[in-house]
Amino acid sequence: MCMGEALRTIAFKVRTASCGGTACINSFGDEQLAVDMLADKLLFEALTYSHYCKYACSEEVPELQDMGGPVEGGFSVAFDPLDGSSIVDTNFTVGTIFGVWPGDKLTGVTGRDQVAAAMGIYGPRTTYVLALKDFPGTHEFLLLDEGKWQHVKETTEIGEGKMFSPGNLRATFDNPDYEKLINYYVREKYTLRYTGGMVPDVNQIIVKEKGVFTNVTSPSTKAKLRLLFEVAPLGLLIEKAGGYSSDGTQSVLDKVINNLDERTQVAYGSKNEIIRFEEILYGSSRLKAGEPVGAAA
């Protein structure tokens, strides 16, 4: 509930931000803040008022902050307050990402330990996409004019479809396997759907129930996406929707989060797209080897 209220406020602040020079700003009390920092403050404030959050951290404040909640029966939350903040001034869709873990640990855990994950999407519509570990499906809520959230969609299956979102394309310069994968998409006449924002690019897989998102590294272009703040929460959303995720050899939900700033490459999509991703980049796929795949039902 507290995060839903924060997302509603962030949506308004993004929509009414003044952009000029190097930043988009809006008011936070008596302060004028860049919208990403404003979103950060709103989310920390909401978690404090929840009374259930023990620790929280964000991409903007990457150290554990004590929110005052209990360890027993409480939760810890990691979030990216405004993913895509550099494209707010272009009026592209941007969003918020967060993952919720039980207790007081955000390291030494995996994405599969999450009890919930969500993203807020601030575009022509404002939507809130939520997945709960013990509840089937990934669920989309629409922000109505009166400020209420209305459930509008449940996604339980990601099927096959020729739609791709290729992040970090510069890696094809010195990663020939990634170049081979991109050439496959082009040769097979996939439709390019890439905005430069991770939230809308991953959200479209859930909404359209098809497609693939890739962000691959190379010797000269190291991993930028953070496992804790972005990759693991989106991994739960995708896998609860019936899709799959991979860092090249395993589901991103099985990667141990060793530190708050840990980074990784990633792909999200349908089963066959993730098989193709793993086979082209690493020669084989665990999804053909009979191993358990996907998030728990």
Automatic annotation (TrEMBL):
One of its GO terms (cellular component) is chloroplast. CDD domains: FBPase. One of its GO terms (molecular function) is sedoheptulose-bisphosphatase activity. Homodimer. Its cofactor is Mg(2+). InterPro entries: FBPase_C_dom (IPR044015), FBPase_class-1 (IPR000146), FBPase_N (IPR033391), Fructose_bisphosphatase_AS (IPR020548), SBPase (IPR023079). Pathway: Carbohydrate biosynthesis; Calvin cycle. Residues 1-154 form the Fructose-1-6-bisphosphatase class I N-terminal domain. Residues 160-281 form the Fructose-1-6-bisphosphatase class 1 C-terminal domain. Keywords: Calvin cycle, Carbohydrate metabolism, Chloroplast, Disulfide bond, Hydrolase, Magnesium, Metal-binding, Plastid, Transit peptide. Belongs to the FBPase class 1 family. SUPFAM superfamilies: Carbohydrate phosphatase. GO terms for biological process: fructose 1,6-bisphosphate metabolic process; fructose 6-phosphate metabolic process; fructose metabolic process; gluconeogenesis; reductive pentose-phosphate cycle; sucrose biosynthetic process. It is found in: Plastid, Chloroplast. It holds the Pfam family FBPase_C. PANTHER family: FRUCTOSE-1,6-BISPHOSPHATASE-RELATED (PTHR11556), SEDOHEPTULOSE-1,7-BISPHOSPHATASE, CHLOROPLASTIC (PTHR11556:SF35). It comes from Stephania yunnanensis. This is Sedoheptulose-1,7-bisphosphatase, chloroplastic. It is an enzyme of class 3 (hydrolase). It catalyses: D-sedoheptulose 1,7-bisphosphate + H2O = D-sedoheptulose 7-phosphate + phosphate. Its EC number is 3.1.3.37. Gene3D superfamilies: 3.40.190.80, Fructose-1,6-Bisphosphatase, subunit A, domain 1.
